[in-house]
Amino acid sequence: MSESAKPPRITSGSKFRNEHGFSAIKDGVKRSSSNTEGKPPLERKPKWLRARMPGGERYDAVRRNVSEHRLSTVCQESHCPPNIGECWTNGTATIMVMGSVCTRACKFCAVDTGNPKGWLDPEEPENTAKSVELMGLRYIVLTSVDRDDLPDGGAAHYAACVSAIKQRTPEVAVEALTPPDFDAVMSDVEKVVDSGLDVFAQNVETVKRLTSRVRDPPRAGYEKTLSVLAHAKKHRPDVLTKTSLMLGLGETEEEILETMDDLRAIGVDILTLGQYLRPPTPNHLPVERYVTPPEEFNRYRDIGLEKGFMEVPSGPPMVRSSYRADRVFDKNNLGLSVPEVPVPDKAMQIPVKAVD
Hints:
The protein is 29% helix and 13% strand. It is an alpha/beta fold.
């Protein structure tokens, strides 16, 4: 192969072997007639969901930093369509630990799936901490793939990453957005919650009725996620708990409000509400509706605040679990008021040290 030749493109939904030698499914969901039969073609997104193309010096500095330290980011692995340009231009990134291959296959998620067979990068905790220090962050979100192949679901490794960040940069606030539910083994949940983090987040993703259709059955469950969030709050009341709902998957308003009540009953502090966006493949769930902007999202935010949430970041096109996570304490809906791609302002820019 010549130096200019590119490796063959891996088709979404097909099996491939990754750089660590184990097989995985590209973009998480297998390509099959059962996945595509009866589904509409990829939807054309409304104009208010268009985002600027990423680029610029600051974006490039974050990209180099991520590459230099062999990090995975959810921005890249899950094809985050609306936010990578703004987040990376502002010197922030949601770092995904424990590799880029997930053991579960949720129908909304485009992260590759497979069995990593216990593989972990032993240098990842320190590399992650160095990266956070280099980027000069004040707030970092650590997320991960599910790792059902590990005895503790990856809890010890997750905790090591948080601890390494706090040792190097104790002033940085750390949010752990944990797709792993650790199979509701509460001693493993406690390992993560006790690691020094400031916010423990785990997403219910959708309403109870749609959980088996949207998430990975039977391993992921609505009640299981609630039990993990409830235990985290009971074990460490000083650590904020957070979760997220995607709208546009076929849920009803009554179900949204019932989910809010379930979350408040276990003391969840922060709820984010955002528009579900189908990954760019024919294998994932279609969008049932685009929630009318911005009035409906604003109304749900008001209802959530009335129910007692500390904050309810809500609205298209940008809101995701980790979007502007550091601004949740401003209690102003992350500065969003209209469904437009935000233009970064100098006040929220974070200095990024160049990585040569």
